[in-house]
Design a protein that fits this description.
α1 packs antiparallel against α2. Helices cover about 80% and strands about 0% of the residues. It is mainly α and about 60 residues long. The chain has 2 helices and no strands. The chain has one domain. The chain is elongated, with a radius of gyration of 14 Å.
Amino acid sequence: MFLITNMKKKINKVQFIIGIILALIGAIFMVFDVLPLPARITIGIVGLILIATSPFKLLK
């Protein structure tokens, strides 16, 4: 039971970190105009969705 709970906490943290990375990559692509606009928006939105759906709490 403890192992499953610990693994879920790690997965939640990884999901949160991946969401932050994707949101930042989307913002950087927006600034430097690297990809077409729909692709940049999609990357940013996916990052925000991962952050929003992650149960990881940054401030406890």
